[in-house]
Amino acid sequence: MNVLQSRKGLDPEQFVVDYIAANLKVKVKAGDNEKTARSVQITLSNVGHKNISFGQWRIFFYTLTPSSTHKTAGFEVGQINGGLFFLAPIKDEFPGISAGSSLDLILEGWKMSAKTDQFPNWFVALSTFRLSSPRIIESTKDGSLSFVNSFENSFQWKKHERDTYNPYTPRDRYMMNKAFQKVKSGIQVIPKPFFVKTFPSRNIVFDKDWVIVKQLTIDRDLEHVQVSHILAMHLGLKEVPEQAENGKYIKYETDESFSKEQYEIKVEPDSKSIIIISSSSKGAFYGTQTLISMLESSHTLPDMVIKDHPRFSYRGLMIDVSRNFHNKETIKKLIYIMSLYKLNKLHMHLTDDDGWRIEIPSIPELTKYGSRRCYNFENDRCLIPSLGSGPYSDKQGSGFYTVGDFRDILRYAKERYVEVVPEIDVPGHAFSAIKAMQYREQDLHQFKSDGTRPSYILSDDVSGIHSVQGWLGSSINPCLNATYSFVETILTDLQSIYKGIQKLERVHLGGDEVPDGVWENSTICQSLLHDSSLDHSTIKKMFIVRVADIAHKHGLKISLWEDGIYNATQGPYDAKEFKQTEVLVNAWNNIWEARIGGRAIEFADSDYKVILSMATHLYFDHPYEPDPEERGLYWATRYIDTYKVFGFMPMDIFANAEFDSLGQKIDLNDLCGGPCPQTKTLNNFVGMEACIWSETIRNESQLYEMTFPRLLAFAERAWHAAEWENLKIPIERKYAKIRDFKRFVNIVGMKELCRLEDAGITYRIPPPGLSFSEEKRILKINTFYPRHEVMISLGNDSRSWRSVGTETQIPKGVSDIHAYAVSPVLNRKSRTVSLHITNDAESNNLHWSYTYIVAIMPLQLFVNTCIHYLIL
């Protein structure tokens, strides 16, 4: 037969859908030569026993890089919205896929440079919504994306012909690990305290006989009681009302001259005591965390004084829970780790095109419809499937925080001195809200509302203009009165949700990436602004100022993404137009080659308070390495490793401009047209924020791997100003930074990674380095962090894995070595890497040099690397 026939009793069209889902094997391959480098080949193989012919079925898939192809191999290629696309067979053109055969489709203009550019859970469904059910194509269910072919050559993984980046070889990684050899020095605490003075000849030994003095009058708000209880619980010690005469006590004292987050620790061998001094419970909490960290390194502490305070008052982590939802337990675990490393702001990106994630009791449709994704989106009233979530609303991609959930998060955060900043992203990135309000309107008509329930129609979108993420109809219209009623209702409910736990001090209003011209064909805007300019910036500014006024009426401070309050021709909006005394701006879009890296300086000099969220250094959705096997996006820079985060210099923005996104060395004089600008108001740089956008992050394990250990390096820079940041000679600064990073790597590897795994944090494990000597047939092995074990296998025997030390003898005849690193607590594995042995000893030992210097270390080290290698 040439067509599928149903089994007895089954809907014939459903039978077709079921057969395709079970028997169609999908393979995706990036173009592998100069001609095809900017295209993708999709191979559809029919592995069943029946032929697949034309029908009313479609195959749906998600991509962030849409193709310019509209027809291929008898298929129509179409877009639903956002990144959801379909392949529909064309009558009289689709050749069919007979049993046992394959069909190749070529999608032009679709550049794929990493495996995670693809998304799982392709699905097949009928082109009309009927009682039949969509089905996920079995071969694409694998979250590890095994249906995506390996990347074999540079045409596949390079973004552009000028791209200098290549994946690290095992030898590259070996030399990198060796260059960052571990050193132990000073106090083993992250973030590094401001001042430490030790007298090593005198010390105390901490044991279970120690007690904690519980003093009820140290702080006016009495929260020191809670801090002392945290310490007692962690160390397993008793709390007592007063200190013992024979010593062995930890005591909290108050110094009103200290700032709120400042603390001092005195370890006093004579009195056998440890004193934590602060002016508030916050300072006491941070001092407590430092003491806990020291005692986890050793129970012997020297006579010492630690004086510490943060460099920035705002030390934040932004997590996007709209693109992919992460439940409250995952968020609480993040908060717990944040508190260990003295981070104090959790910015939750709660709304975007892909989902509305917080219950608003006054507008229940926001989560009833806006938090769910499914295929039958009009009949079932949900959002379209996004980011590989598949066609079902009970799977990954759907979800929200109930009021109870969110209050639980707030309560947990308050106990750990973390402020939760909610973001309601308007006017762009609002498809979920707009769609949910359309469904609400249908409900009002269907159930004949008595008029007491307000209408919130938020858009009359007629622009046909896509957002940068491919969404149509994703921008709230500033010319509609309902828009402002909607915002007011949201803020009112948010304040109620926070009430009695954390006072809602600040709301983030987003404002970013609104597509130009999206309102200019709106008849409502034309009517409202008939005597004024209808240009994009005028309308957006009207919206931002009016929404800020609503927030001010509610007593709220505001934050915005930089492009939310920036006019491309005039610069930042006048800060005086806002009633708030301070407006926080997240400066993020610093792609150096686009010559917009100085926006943070513009905002600081325009009297805004700036939070540095620079995409080239602090966007943790980017991969750790320039490797197609690594998870993440790479639009701002090809990779962001822990060293790059650690080396970020917040007070000298352009000092961070070393390479562009293709790895080309940046000439600062050319970039800036002369000397690069410096802000005149450094005190307006008030904080840093690491950002975890979640397009490619679908579960808790992936979230933690992308966040850690980079977040530890971020915490170091947000709290501690390193001495090397002030060195003016670049090569001296570079060497000092590397020495400091070695200290950091040693602490992280010896202690902090174990703490993370003990807390259930599945941090990223770097693959091991391998270097082979053909002459002696010795394999040398190392890891980036200490305490990681390495397993190797020889040849193709997958059962021969064995543990190795720093070197091992390789028998003659072996041509391939495979290896992975293993974590010390949970025995988790890194990505497996392979080394192919050749008879060219010189290439085996020297291949590292170019890639290591260009891809890992800034080019100013090139000339001096050989001379100074032993210093490194």
Nearest-integer average pLDDT = 91
The Cα radius of gyration reads 29 Å
CATH superfamily of the largest domain: Glycosidases
Tell me the strand percentage band.
Answer: 15-25%
CATH class of the largest domain: Alpha Beta
CATH topology of the largest domain: TIM Barrel
Record the strand order, biggest sheet: 17-18-21-22-23-26-27-28
**Which range best describes the helical content: under 10%, 10-25%, 25-40%, 40-55%, 55-70% or over 70%?**
25-40%
The dominant shape is: globular
- List the uncertain runs: 841-872
Number of strands: 35
DSSP helix count?
A: 23
Overall domain count: 4
**Name of the CATH architecture of the largest domain:** Alpha-Beta Barrel
Largest sheet at a glance?
A: 8 strands, parallel, barrel
End-to-end distance: 70 Å
SS content category: alpha/beta
Keywords:
872 residues, alpha/beta, Immunoglobulin-like, Chitobiase, domain 2, eight-stranded parallel β-barrel, seven-stranded mixed beta sheet, 27% helix
Secondary structure layout plus pairing:
Elements lengths: L11 H12 E7 L8 E8 L10 E6 L8 E2 L2 E7 L2 E6 L12 E7 L14 E4 L8 E2 L17 H4 L12 H10 L15 E11 L5 E3 L10 H12 L2 E3 L8 E6 L8 E6 L4 E6 L2 H17 L2 E9 L5 E7 L7 H13 L4 E5 L1 E2 L2 E2 L8 H4 L8 H4 L22 H13 L3 E8 L4 H16 L34 H18 L7 E5 L12 H6 L7 H18 L3 E5 L4 E2 L3 E2 L10 E5 L11 H7 L3 E4 L2 H4 L23 H5 L21 H5 L12 E8 L7 H8 L2 H10 L10 H29 L10 E5 L4 E5 L6 E6 L7 E3 L2 E3 L6 E7 L10 E4 L4 H6 L1 H9 L5 H7 L4
Parallel strand pairs: 11-12, 11-13, 13-15, 17-18, 17-28, 18-21, 21-22, 22-23, 23-26, 26-27, 27-28
Antiparallel strand pairs: 1-2, 2-7, 3-6, 3-8, 4-5, 5-6, 8-9, 10-16, 14-15, 14-16, 19-20, 24-25, 29-30, 30-33, 31-32, 31-34, 34-35
